[in-house]
């Protein structure tokens, strides 16, 4: 079983200490009653991975680990087999001792678009909401974060994170908790909060923005990345049953409307720092994610539209501050 005790010890003194009033009981309940049917099998793969300390660790320009003396082919194949047991891999990529995990998303491309526009992460306490496998947590550590805490209720992602951490040398500065944002109390403790690829999955997007604000210290920074549509401040798309084959997409505002939502929730210094269409080079089927991907969700005759006839995925990055 995954041990969260080290994280509890790390936060026992400091701005997150009051989280211990609720967090251990939530994790205990999760361990006793909420485990996915495949969790034991996934965790077994993690436990069989070797605990390695790399000679060369790269977290600044990517996420990779290597030895000065390469592993044997048998060792490399053993690691690859165990990591493939944790498919599908959606967020990455990772390069681990000669095993290149070519994930569905080029999350490094997203990071390259976001990073130039945010406050320096050096010595910051960071929360990443809906962090997936934790790829961006490692990039945050590479940027100097004091601690990067990810939350994501998807248990496969937790096992992927633990697998990567084990191969990166068990760095104590990154943690992933199997929780949703709605399970967090108002911590008012993080210097930077990231919410990337989450807002459009929320039935109540303004509640989500309030929840994010409640995790920030005064003066803290929100980094929000989400699907948007073209239009003025009054434009919001409410898709039908599916959007790009996804069932749980509720609201796609324009960047201008999203700016107003942030203002309504009390954020200030709001900036739209990036906006662009998602390409089939950035999100695609790979050997590590073999089911359908973006190309299958777009109109084959017109990639400017989804298969349902909606505008193709357009993503914006907004940065805002808690007063």
Automatic annotation (TrEMBL):
Q: Which Pfam families match?
A: Methyltransf_9
Instruction: Provide the function of this protein.
Output: Catalyzes carboxymethyl transfer from carboxy-S-adenosyl-L-methionine (Cx-SAM) to 5-hydroxyuridine (ho5U) to form 5-carboxymethoxyuridine (cmo5U) at position 34 in tRNAs.
Q: What is its EC number?
A: 2.5.1.-
**Which UniProt keywords are present, listed alphabetically?**
Methyltransferase, Transferase, tRNA processing
Binding residues for carboxy-S-adenosyl-L-methionine: 91, 105, 110, 130, 152-154, 181-182, 196, 200, 315
Q: Which gene encodes it?
A: cmoB
Q: Biological process (GO) annotations?
A: methylation; tRNA wobble uridine modification
Which EC class heads this enzyme's classification?
Answer: transferase
Q: Source taxonomy lineage?
A: Bacteria, Pseudomonadati, Pseudomonadota, Gammaproteobacteria, Enterobacterales
What top-level branch of life does the organism fall under? Bacteria
NCBIfam families assigned to the protein according to its UniProt record, in alphabetical order: PRK15068.1, tRNA 5-methoxyuridine(34)/uridine 5-oxyacetic acid(34) synthase CmoB
Official protein name in the record: tRNA U34 carboxymethyltransferase
Q: Which reaction does it catalyse?
A: carboxy-S-adenosyl-L-methionine + 5-hydroxyuridine(34) in tRNA = 5-carboxymethoxyuridine(34) in tRNA + S-adenosyl-L-homocysteine + H(+)
The entry assigns this protein to a family as follows: Belongs to the class I-like SAM-binding methyltransferase superfamily. CmoB family.
